[in-house]
Amino acid sequence: MSVRNYTGFVKRCQICNNPELTEILSLGHQPIVQHYLTKQELFSPESAYPLTLVQCGRCGLVQLNYIIEPSKVFPADYPYRTGMTNMLIKNFQELAETTARLGFLKKGDLIVDIGSNDGTLLQAFKEKGMRVLGVEPTNAAKVANARGIKTLQQFFSANSVKTILKKYGPARIITATNVFAHINDAASLVKNIKALMDDESVFISESQYLMDIIEKLEFDTIYHEHLRIYSLKPIRHLFEMYNLSLVDAERISAAGGSIRVYARKGKYPMSTRVKKLMAAEKKAGLHDEKTLMLFAQKTYRAKNDLLALLLKCKKSGGRIVGLTSSARSNTLLGFSHIDNTLLDYLCEKKGSPKIGLYTPGTHIPVVDEAVLFKEQPEYALVLSWHIGEELIKIMRSRGYKGKFILPLPVAKVVS
Ligand SMILES: [Zn+2]
Question: 118, 190, 195, 313: least surrounded by Cβ within 10 Å?
Fold first, then answer.
């Protein structure tokens, strides 16, 4: 199969090249979720792109059918920093622990992290005495280098592999956490990863899991960064196309529910854990059109119910603000038509680079959360609802007196 480095409308399955793709869910045209606007930019035209999920009838992959040019989605000034998300720091420490427990790591082994952001995961490996190297296209690479985590600032490519092999040799572990679904050419990605491996190497990836997205109705995790929503069936298909074996997998809580998979070069048996998870996918009908269409219907209903609840709260004279502002909250806001006429502002922790900017498409100002404690608006919409319980406790303990609105899976006001 030829190497495809495409952008624009996707006519064939991103994994198996099958032209028969079935439309599952359309979230309309949406802007790039991390493209926050300055006040000045509010006076300029803004681009929006189709955001539609389709499914491949052959390998089962659920995927977007429109791919935006990567340099637009991940510009150098991309605002996300892994080190700001406590849950991810914990997850990465746990991943480093788990990997160390597997027993095949020696001090000085090379760990390469693809899409390493600010080096949070590699820091955990470095502390265990490994050599670490990151590959990261955005300015987060500068942050990593400044804290002593050697990072190449570039998109991961055949050239990165050449550089790494020449200077450092093959990697014992290659990680791709929350990035394996982001790189537009799945075939080249796997080829490049394989080129960095020797017979001992293990590739570990973490991606949001289709099972979690469907079970919890997390349609807000759909945005242009996530080109493929993985499940084990298509991942296995992808690995086997390049003679890699899916050897192990586990469900983890990162990013609202993810799947962590382990792969090796050559032929190896699947662990009992993978076999069980694959059986569970089958039992849940995860790749059946019927299941996916039901998910779409639930999504459309949830969106309308949320909007109706917010309009009711607004009509009663209440001010509504949002907690917090993220990629996923921008999908929820944009798709649900919740804009600056409904929400006064979104709150972010002090120091967030989004403060002072406006959300893409919906143009809601992002402010320091201190404003919320001072103004005490009647309602706070918990946009980070996947960590809602924890967030509500924190905001309450810090003095917010209003009501919380949970947007999903069923929109409701909680006092
Ligand atoms: Zn396919």
Answer: 195
